[in-house]
Every structure is written in C-alpha cells, then in structure tokens.
Amino acid sequence: MEGGQRKFTVAEFLVAGGLPLDWKYRSLFGRAAAAVYRGQYGRDPERVTEAVDGVARTVFAYRPSELHVLEAGWLAFPQTAHLPVPTLEAAMSVTFTADGHGEPVNMANANAAVVLDVLGLTESCGDEDPEQFLGRVLVAVAITPDDEGRPAETRGRFTDCGRPVGYLQRRLADLRGLAEHALRSGLRVTWG
Questions:
Q1: I need a labelling partner for 155 at 20 to 30 A (CA). Which of 88, 98, 134, 169 fits?
Q2: Residue 68 and residue 8: Cα distance in Å, rounded?
Q3: The organism sits in which domain of life (predicted)?
C-alpha cells in the first residue's frame, strides 16, 4: 500500500504553519527539507504535480511517516526556527461514519494518517461502498503487523502525543464494526 499513501507538499506544510502560499522563502525551504530527506534516506523525496503560482510544477511530497523531515527542516531553517512547528491537524482529523448514521469512528492528526495509509486511502475525505470498505479493513487487519505504538516526543516547540500500543488494531476493529453496520443498513461509508 506504499504507493497509495497520502502525500504532503512543502506548500501544505508551510500553510499549516501560518505562512502564505507566496512566501518568498518557500522554494529555499523546500530545497532545505529535501536535503534533510536525502541525508536520512539517501535519495530524493517522491514528486507530485502541483499548481505553483498558477503553473503545474513537479514538487517534492512527503508521506505522513516522513513529515519529521519537514519538521526538522522547519527547526533548522533560519526564517522558521523561531516559529511553532506546524502540524497538519486540519488535513488529518478524520471521522468515519455509515453515511452520517450510528456511532462515528473519529481519529486525529498523525494517527488518522497511519490508519488511512494502511487502508490504502489517499484522500482524507471520501465515501465508498460498504462492501469495498470492509474488504479494505479486512486486508489491513490481515497484513498490518501488531502496532507497537509510538512514544510521545517533543521537538522544539512541537509535541507529538504519540500512539498507544495496539492503536491500529483497535481502530481497524472499530472500522470493521462500522463497515458491517453500513453493509447491513445499505449505507455508504464516509470519512472526512
């Protein structure tokens, strides 16, 4: 499912940090973050096509598991080091429902990104036939290793609250119940 992961661009990260899309250091920051990535992974980040100043351009993009690179770049870049590190909360607060009925399954921040990734969903909002969604959940349950969790950590002014042990398995069980309810009720599964 690696190829289907939602990817974030430098522009999204900078906007989450309160900077304008036309921030004069955007390109320099992007190059600095890519250098951090190359230093850690030994290759360039993946690329996506994005409208930059009204023109389609190829830009670097980062998976949720790689956002630490942008955070490190933020803390090292002279024009941003004094600012709070952005989070992509707004993009990753996700509530799954059976077409708005029943008990929703709500996730936030980095945890939602991980769950979306294991489900092979590339968008943070959408809807799907309940049988197809249930299939995604069952495949994810079968192939996802036991979640060892992730400890809370603070980097600069940014605190990531981590993820408890077994989180993915609990959330996938919740989503299975939601999908089965949607299937029995003839409702689509929605998230956003």
A1: 169
A2: 12
A3: Bacteria
Range of the domain at 187: 89-191
The last residue of one of the domains, among 24, 48, 76, is 76
Q: Which residue shows structure tokens 């951090």?
A: 36
CA distance 8 to 60: 9
SS3 101: strand
Q: Which pTM does this prediction carry?
A: 0.54
| Cα 82 to Cα 85: distance, rounded to the nearest angstrom | 9
The rounded distance, in Å, linking the Cα atoms of 73 and 71 is 5
Rounded CA gap, 93 and 110, in Å?
A: 9
Digit-coded pLDDT (tens) for 123-175 = 777 889 999 999 999 999 999 999 898 887 766 655 566 778 898 999 999 99
User: Are residues 13 and 68 located together in one domain of the fold?
Assistant: yes
Cα–Cα dist 190/192, whole Å: 7
Together in a domain, 99 and 43:
no
DSSP letter for 86, please. Answer: P
Final residue of a structural domain among 51, 76, 101: 76
